[in-house]
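WARN no homologs supplied; continuing
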Amino acid sequence: MSTTKPVTDARIGEIFREEYGRAVAVLTRTFGDLDLAEDTVQDAFTIAVRRWPIDGVPPSPAGWIITTARNRGIDRIRRESRRDSKHAEAAALAEQTRTDDSEVDDEDHEAGPVTDDRLRLIFTCCHPALAPTAQVALTLRLLGGLSTPEIARAFLVPEATMAQRIVRAKSKIKGARIPNRIPTDADLPDRLRTVLAVLYLIFNEGYTASSGDSLVRDDLSAEAIRLTRLLLGLMPDEPEVRGLLALMLLTQARRPARIGADGELVPLAEQERSRWDTELIATGHDLVLQCIRRNQPGPYQLQAAINAVHTDAKRLEDTDWRQIVLLYDQLLAISPTPMVELNRAIALAEVEGPEVALGYVEALRQAQGSTSGPGRRMEQGLLERSHLFHTVRADLLRRLGQPAEALEAYDQAIALATNAAEQRFLQRRRAELSGLLPNAG
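OK structure emitted
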């Protein structure tokens, strides 16, 4: 250990968020066993909690965690006679002898352009043998390092239900002998949709954390962007990959202005646009133009185009809201989800006024459970349980001069919001409307 300064639990937690997914991916490749990989990484962090406050953070925290976890795994394999596999033990020992802390910093030690351990693990988690909800949950658990309660809150399901999904998904991977590898070129297109959905959800969890006191988790956003760049290198002719990367970059570009000096949420209408990241915006706009030239529109490309219109406006009043509504109309034609309709209502309010938009939102509420198809009914129910739905209603009602109804909608939004920063923002809005002090609940 070269560092002598003591480290706090908060610092170890930060390293956990940054390195957990990477460590699990490396150990999954080493042992070929998801449970063993995750257990040993968790053991390594448990040891770190005891030792690092005394010894200090090692020069390469990721290398220390991976090496410690690998040693724990090798010891477990040796102890458990029921896992008496000489081949697995030999492979693990060989991996240990040729990998040290410095080599961990160079993940792509195998030949080829797409040997990244985390990307390999994403495709494993997104295997078609797994249910879509399990694919996303497992990837968030293994790559994002989210806890089971955090994932359960993101999916609005009980923690026990989510725990069962994750356990079943791991068992399915083991029982079906699903390989931990990048699919062949022939299989890639069929696996792409779920992989993109997983990357987008990881990014969204980073951009607005499902729980906790902080609004964002920059480590998750950065990881999602990194993996999407890697995926674009793997599939450069897939416009939806390019569209997703553009969407992430244009969304992330607003992040510096989205959080105030006090760490509180700043809505789009109040953001200081000079603080937006112009480099990310330029790159995102270029990617959107490349998508337009291909003329193969998809959901992520259209969402990226909407964000391009937003980031093209130097001032809020310069926003081309009519163009945004038209883009949402195109998006609804190919991806008719309630959340897309809710976002269209926000844009519609700027074009046709809050009264028209509120009527549109109320129509969404009345349609819950009445549209055909069980999948659509489930999505409608999810919309009603989303704090965003009630937040939009509250804002429209406020603008229409209906404070009593707006306060009720704010109460519903506050009750459903699970992120403390969003709750505080909604409480301030409610307090302003009710005439209470800004810090009133």
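The longest helix spans residues 9-31.
OK
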